[in-house]
Amino acid sequence: MAFLSVITGATASVVAGPLPPANTGHFYVGNYQGDDVVVFDGSGAVTRHFSDPDLDGPRGIVIGPRGRIFVAAQKSDSIVVFDADENCVDTFTDPELVAPTGLAFGRGGVLYACSSGNDRIVAFAPDGTLVGSFTARGLKKPACIATDGRTVFVAGAGSPWIFRFSADGTPRGWFTGGGLVSPAGIALAGGLLYVSDRGSGRVVVLDRDGTVQAELSHRDLAGPRGLAFDDRRHRFVSCCFRNWIVEFDPSGRYVRTIAGGQLSFPGGVAFSSMPIGDVDDDGSVGLLDFGKLLAGWGTCPAPPERCRADANRDGTVDVGDLFIVLANWD
């Protein structure tokens, strides 16, 4: 029997000109033992920290509508919600939610949370109202979750199994593959599942039936946990045994190791979705962005991730970028 009645729907915005990818800019890391969220810029430099008294043991982290940041607080049995300015604006709690870990958004803005303390998945409406909860036989201490809106994939560090559910919570079986030992992070990209396996120190890439497609490995990949993708399809993996982030390119080649921010047992990783054309990263598109775009006119300097005025990511700040800024003017 299905436990959830999931609202479906979609939103859209009208923009003109060539568009950059949807997820770009800063990335956020849940800092479990530091009780805060550490923010890195595209170059890997730490820019700031933010927290709240309710943020006790942050684990999973996702970016929601209007740039709101949702963080699972494992030790306080809650999900702490920050607005785009990183101010705490809400806290989701319910007796069903015990020691939350992984988070993922489904259709209609439904937020799924792994409730590791009672072996369940708990779903909340966008306003924090409980929608329902579900589980499956054999699901123990769920730690990570991902969904494409139709199928929900869940795994826990206590077993090598990945559990499938429909969006309404109906169990759809389970599978494993690639020698998984203790999955700690999971993400969907290009129809494939990327699974951070803390037990074997790898990221295993599987199709939806568990057939191995590839794997990512490196000596710095110690205790891989949180997993996210940027707008270039680079993979960023938090490593809880070494307190850093390891980056791989789309082909799976190692790029760099990002340290700093006093990370201590880092968890989830998430990328911000900045307004298209927001050159100065203030959350809106306006006159200041226009001025910065004109000031940066011409070929982008290296490293290219610092060239914020290049809105369409073609390596040059030109009329195409100007068109994007004007089309998205607030």
Q: What features would you describe in this structure?
A:
This protein has helices at residues 287-295, 319-327, and strands at residues 27-31, 36-40, 46-50, 58-63, 69-73, 78-82, 88-92, 100-105, 111-115, 120-124, 130-134, 142-147, 151-156, 162-166, 171-175, 183-189, 192-197, 202-206, 212-216, 224-229, 235-239, 244-248, 254-258, 266-271, 298-299, 316-317. The chain is mainly β and 330 residues long. The chain folds into 2 domains: 27-271, 6 Propeller (Neuraminidase); 287-327, no CATH class. Helix 1 (287-295) runs antiparallel to helix 2 (319-327). Mean pLDDT is 87; it is low at 5-23.
Fold topology:
Elements: E1 27-31, E2 36-40, E3 46-50, E4 58-63, E5 69-73, E6 78-82, E7 88-92, E8 100-105, E9 111-115, E10 120-124, E11 130-134, E12 142-147, E13 151-156, E14 162-166, E15 171-175, E16 183-189, E17 192-197, E18 202-206, E19 212-216, E20 224-229, E21 235-239, E22 244-248, E23 254-258, E24 266-271, H1 287-295, E25 298-299, E26 316-317, H2 319-327
Helix pairs in contact: 1-2
Task: Provide the descriptors you would attach to this structure in a database record.
330 residues, mainly beta, 2 domains, 4-stranded antiparallel β-sheet
